[in-house]
Specification:
By secondary structure, the protein is mostly helical. It is 49% helix and 0% strand.
């Protein structure tokens, strides 16, 4: 990824750790059991770097912000 070369270089190291922390936060904030959310980081580095952030092809499409 040319726009954020540091992100592309570190995505495999950084995102699983961030996901694990976020998983704990969202479980606490929603009151849902931690087991509700997948334990393993569910996307590959390539999927994250190439996914559109907006529009119908986005994994976030239809979610309120």
């Amino acid at each position: 990824m040319d726009v954020w070369p540091n992100l592309a270089a570190n995505v495999e190291r950084v995102l699983p750790k961030a996901y694990a922390q976020g998983r704990e936060v969202v479980a606490e904030e929603t009151g849902l059991p931690l087991e509700t959310f997948p334990e393993a980081y569910p996307w590959t580095a390539e999927q994250v770097l190439k996914a559109p952030l907006e529009g119908p092809d986005s994994p976030f499409f239809g979610e309120s912000r």
